[in-house]
Specification:
The chain is an alpha/beta fold. It has two domains: 172 residues, Rossmann fold; 89 residues, 2-Layer Sandwich (Pantoate--beta-alanine Ligase, Chain: A,domain 2). 38% of the residues lie in helices and 19% in strands. It has ten helices and nine strands. The chain has a six-stranded parallel sheet with strand order 1-4-3-2-5-6, sandwiched between helices. The chain has a three-stranded antiparallel sheet with strand order 7-8-9, with helices on one face. Strand 5, helix 7 and strand 6 form a beta-alpha-beta unit. It is globular. The chain binds adenosine monophosphate. The site of adenosine monophosphate has 17 residues, from helix 2 and strand 5.
């Protein structure tokens, strides 16, 4: 597995592969890798000939009140996991390589980025869309894998690529979960043992609300029941909402013929848990 930390090195390596006709699959990450990330590597591998995984803790997607310095980092462990997963190139740009001094350009995606995580974390999706656009342009990726775990992010990135005519195919990858339903996340390590026991309630509440809505129950009632269950279980819901899957437009009732998602965020101790499910 090659390792590159600056753009000229990355371009030279990718140029050699591309000259041989290889299609490039990209897996953008912030490191602290778990099996969810590795399933993105597998998806990229299935869609391309060479897999590039980036590890970059992107400062521009953290708000002023979010602790960038607390973000877990384990470069040696991550590289070993990527190597074992069959990744071909690890792209580990420095902050200076990613954001040269004097930088004045950003990617702003309106609409789909505005509610939910966008409302809770002002500027977050501007940072995400900007860094993902840069990663697409740096690598010239033919395909890029993103987790459905971060549903809104997936829609924001898809919208940005489409609007900017970036010829990258966005590959959505189903959420990888623990046996009890908790979505894998690098933040789960900050849960105390007691919190860890309560955490699967988020996924369980989402599934219950989705099943109720699919069975024709009133959506507002199903969502309110879900929020109550979260509170009773010691989780503080930020939102639990039915949305149009692609646009993130909130729906107050099921819309037949439209792909729908229930998205949720809830706080448990110091951790903000995110999850979502499809409405079947
Ligand atoms: P992160 O490093 O947390 O920014 O995530 C990098 C990528 O991994 C994003 O596309 C995430 O949606 C994806 N991801 C994170 N957790 C999971 C999971 N449990 N299952 C599938 N993909 C995930």
């Amino acid at each position: 597995m090659l390792i590159h930390r600056d753009i000229p090195g990355l371009r030279a390596a990718l140029g050699a592969w591309r000259a041989r006709g290889a299609r490039i699959g990209l897996v953008p990450t912030m490191g602290a890798l778990h099996d969810g990330h590795l399933s993105l590597v597998a998806a990229a591998r299935a869609a391309a000939d060479v897999v590039v995984a980036s590890i970059f803790v992107n400062p521009t997607q953290f708000g002023p009140n979010e602790d960038l310095s607390r973000y877990p980092r384990d470069e040696a462990g991550d590289l070993a996991k990527l190597r074992a997963a069959g990744c071909d190139l690890a792209w580990l740009p420095t902050v200076e390589a990613m954001y040269p001094p004097g930088g004045a350009t950003a990617v702003e995606v309106r609409g789909v980025s505005e509610g939910f995580e966008g409302a809770a974390r002002p500027g977050h999706f501007r940072g995400v869309a900007t860094v993902c656009t840069k990663l697409f342009l740096q690598t010239g990726a033919d395909a890029a894998a993103f987790g459905e775990k971060d549903w809104q992010q997936l829609q924001v990135v898809r919208r940005a690529a489409r609007d900017l005519d970036i010829p990258v195919r966005i590959l959505p990858v189903p959420t990888v979960r623990e046996a009890d339903g908790l979505a894998l996340s690098s933040r789960n390590r900050f849960l105390s043992p007691g919190e860890r026991e309560r955490a699967p309630l988020l996924h369980a509440s989402l599934l219950r609300a989705a099943a109720a809505i699919a069975a024709g129950r009133d959506a507002a009632e199903a969502l309110a029941t879900g929020e109550d269950a979260l509170r009773r279980g010691g989780l503080m819901p930020d939102y639990l909402a039915l949305v149009e899957a692609e646009t993130m437009r909130p729906l107050d009732r099921a819309a037949p013929g439209t792909a729908m998602r229930i998205v949720a965020a809830a706080r448990l101790g110091t951790v903000r848990l995110l999850d979502n499910v499809a409405v079947p």
